[in-house]
User: Which sequence fits this backbone?
């Protein structure tokens, strides 16, 4: 079972990498920008879903308000880029530090509770934040902030222009890949094992010598950082931010993404985000009621492949190997 | 130093625990001497599991104190008790069922390398891996390392449970009905395992399999209706008339 899951994850990693490579090469050749920008958006929301999967799939905490940190990252990046002329690296560093602080502070509210109450508190926190931003004139209130300038990224290989869709796609791809591999690395550390232990059987941990509060807080802060860094990329892609980025639809979508891709697999978050974005785009051109179709797809997946796409393929690999 | 070795490793003094109007444990004192197996027996509802939970820190007593190596540990958490050498298992198998056997053991063993760091990043901690390998061998789980704990047979799960409990090399091992629900052959195997372990560590055992207890233990404490009614060597306890009426019934009379 474990082997087949590892194999399915490896296949998905290669699949996503191949798709990204093909997209860049073919997209550049054809001079496409629409699909490349769509894929960039899928990756950015995939980063948010990664944060949700860390909490839900690894530690066993259902966050219904992860958009709070995503939106925080997006707004902070927009303000720093537009009003303070920060560069890419300093924006990312600032978002990293302040989202860690925000995650740490809010963890004292959110981690007081477990299970459904944790879900409700994270939901509530995000609603409070979204309504506050919605009513703050300095942040553009309900209109959000437009006119975020195109960023030049200084690298040892010269300056990169985020205005070029393919270049920015590669930058986002690398950023999300780093977040993904950092999380994946964590899973095999002692702390990662404790996270799995918390999900599996939290009340047993004190009897093998652990206090669970510290590791939970660490995961919560890390999930805030991952969501915020993903969010920081959003205004660089779209040139604007709006309070909708903090709304429940964004948090809820991230949860759906994770369940669709496969809870607790991490790569499922990225795969799910890609698939959902493609579906939304295709169905969105046919009908404005695409949410109904997405909802139906979600119901079908939950009924017929409750372990998500990765889980489904892991089971298939398992069957094939056990039949010889 | 000498006095420390003569003194009991664990003692409960005048422990009382009430649940609403029910007095589950009523002013019970118990002493567990070093090495070998000390057992608590009693009919269902005698309060032996409650006593066990008071000693291990799962419940806090309404009155009375618990001493480990003469240190009052009444108010310490299970995690702090573990770092002082006390470990316990659970009556209902209590493992990380959706993790592999390896991960279950590594989770328990990695605590050996205590560090104050909040986030521990060393992926390959030799001490933990060595301890985990040792336990896998001792508890005959070699062929099951990659299996999920939830997929093991009941007997294997009970073995893994004891292995996880032994990870931190405790001085005092508290086993809550380790043979519960086991087949006859598994019970014999576990009983051998316990008697072997009893040569290295002190074991406090709760059981209702009387024959198992009588064969393994150097000292037996008998409880009934929340009180201690007898204690001593297995044979003297077996002959105690109070014990015979309360627990063994007519069959041994």
Assistant:
């Amino acid at each position: 079972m474990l082997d087949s899951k590892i194999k399915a994850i490896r296949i998905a990693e290669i699949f996503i990498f191949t798709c990204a490579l093909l997209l860049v090469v073919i997209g550049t050749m054809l001079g496409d920008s629409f699909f490349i920008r769509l894929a960039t958006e899928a990756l950015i929301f995939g980063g948010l879903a990664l944060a949700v999967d860390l909490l839900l799939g690894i530690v066993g905490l259902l966050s219904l308000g992860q958009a709070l940190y995503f939106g925080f990252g997006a707004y902070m990046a927009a303000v720093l880029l537009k009003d303070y002329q920060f560069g890419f690296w300093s924006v990312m560093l600032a978002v990293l530090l302040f989202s860690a602080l925000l995650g740490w502070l809010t963890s004292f509210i959110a981690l007081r509770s477990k299970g459904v109450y944790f879900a409700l508190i994270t939901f509530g926190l995000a609603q409070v934040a979204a309504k506050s931003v919605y009513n703050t004139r300095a942040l553009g209130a309900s209109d959000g902030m437009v006119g975020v300038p195109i960023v030049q990224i200084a690298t040892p290989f010269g300056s990169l222009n985020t205005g070029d869709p393919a270049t920015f796609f590669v930058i986002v791809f690398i950023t999300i890949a780093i977040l993904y591999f950092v999380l994946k690395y964590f899973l095999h550390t002692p702390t990662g094992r404790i996270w799995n232990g918390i999900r599996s059987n939290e009340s047993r941990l004190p009897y093998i010598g652990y206090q669970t509060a510290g590791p939970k807080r660490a995961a919560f802060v890390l999930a805030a950082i991952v969501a915020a860094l993903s969010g920081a990329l959003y205004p660089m892609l779209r040139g604007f931010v709006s309070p909708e980025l903090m709304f429940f639809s964004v948090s809820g979508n991230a949860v759906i993404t994770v369940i669709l891709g496969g809870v607790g697999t991490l790569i499922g978050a990225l795969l799910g985000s890609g698939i959902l974005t493609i579906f939304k785009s295709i169905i969105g051109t046919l009908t404005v009621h695409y949410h109904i179709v997405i909802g139906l797809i979600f119901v079908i997946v939950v009924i017929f492949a409750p372990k998500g796409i990765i889980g489904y393929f892991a089971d298939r690999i398992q069957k094939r190997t056990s039949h010889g | 130093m000498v006095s420390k070795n003569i003194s009991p490793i664990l003692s409960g003094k005048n422990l009382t625990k009430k649940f609403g109007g029910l007095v589950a444990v009523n002013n019970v004192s118990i002493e567990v001497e070093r090495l070998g197996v000390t057992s608590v027996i009693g009919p269902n509802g005698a309060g032996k599991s409650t006593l066990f939970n008071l000693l291990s820190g799962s419940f806090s007593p309404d009155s009375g104190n618990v001493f480990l190596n003469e240190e009052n540990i009444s108010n310490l958490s299970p995690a702090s008790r573990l770092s002082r050498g006390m470990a316990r298992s659970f009556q209902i198998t209590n493992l990380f069922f959706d993790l592999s056997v390896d991960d279950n053991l590594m989770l328990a063993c990695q605590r050996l390398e205590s560090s104050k760091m909040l986030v521990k990043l060393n992926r390959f901690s030799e001490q933990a891996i060595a301890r985990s390998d040792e336990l896998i061998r001792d508890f005959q789980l070699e062929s099951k390392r990659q299996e999920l704990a939830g997929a093991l047979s009941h007997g294997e799960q009970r073995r893994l449970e004891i292995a996880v409990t032994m990870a931190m090399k405790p001085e005092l091992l508290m086993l809550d009905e380790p043979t519960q629900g086991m087949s006859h052959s598994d019970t014999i195997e576990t009983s051998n395992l316990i008697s072997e372990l009893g040569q290295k560590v002190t074991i406090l055992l709760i059981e209702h399999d009387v024959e198992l207890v009588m064969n393994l233990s150097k000292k037996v404490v008998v409880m009934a209706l929340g009180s201690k009614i007898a204690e001593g060597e297995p044979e003297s306890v077996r002959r105690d008339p109070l014990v015979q009426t309360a627990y063994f019934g007519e069959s041994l009379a």
User: Anything to note?
Assistant: Chain A touches chain B through 27 residues (CB under 8 Å).
